[in-house]
Design brief:
A hairpin with a 3-residue loop joins strand 7 and strand 8. The chain has 2 helices and 16 strands. 38% of the residues are buried. It has a 16-stranded antiparallel sheet that branches. 7% of the residues lie in helices and 63% in strands. By secondary structure, it is mainly beta.
Length: 327
Amino acid sequence: MKRSAISLIILLTTLATTSTAQISTDSLTRGVRSFVARNFSEVRTFNLYWETTPDHDYTLMQNGKEIENGKFRSANTVKFSATVPVLLLKNFSLYANGQFNSYQFEANNKINGNESAIFSKNEDGYNYYEGSVTGTYRTKAVGKPLILIASALGDGWHKGFGKAQGLFSAIMVFKQSPTTSFSVGLYGTILYEKIPVIPIITYWHEFNPNLSVDITLPSRSYLRYQHNNHRFSAGASLSSEHFYMESGMENVPEVSFFNRATIKPEIVYEYIINKHFYLIARCGGSALINGGLYGTNRKGIDGDPYVKFKQPMTPFVNVGFSYNLFK
């Protein structure tokens, strides 16, 4: 699979953030398993996260040539999302989701010390907004549970609306027991023309009341240990950071879409404060898979970007807080 295809997977199916893809995958997970690890709900009503990384280098390439060698400083990200059930029936569920991401950083050219030629148009940072509606329908086919999920979403920034798109998936459950579940499905989107439908595999197994493995490919894989109100996880997840921006460069659209797709090996700690509140902390490294500046119509995400973005593996620390209204 091409690296660009992997970045699309991350953009649409990552569980590291609570985007519409989060709703789709979590709806799948909830439908596939008869229960989740004790008291740790997969879908939470409100999520607030703050992530920071140390100063790190980056490189911008255009037409195979290096056009900027720079450094990010004071890089911080704040993400907030809300997921609310609109309709809950026996075989059908409808959810509404809203998300706000704020990316704050300084970018300087290491060669001359000046501001970045690309990341210099917005001194207040880069904000990204997204809203979606996701429907999940549970039925049976050839005697096996079948889960159908469809999402309609739109995004934007402080200067207006961005892009609308549709997502869909179909997952068949082949095994479901109190200690094991296994399912296979397909995932696709109407926005990108060159990316084929992507396979999804989910596997969950409880070795004992405290130890389990939780895999949803291609988005995440964790070994989990739970003791009372504490849960520790070790594994990796795919993630994507993206926002609209004004680049101020020649041969690049005046308004561009920046996308950075990464894989994050990490250790995660979760604590149930009470029946509704959760505390989450994670740390690890962020390794770039693909990144760059694209057109607002996403032109190039299934091919080559206008400007290619590169960076070394970077450590990160992420702390968050979740509230689950429905327990």
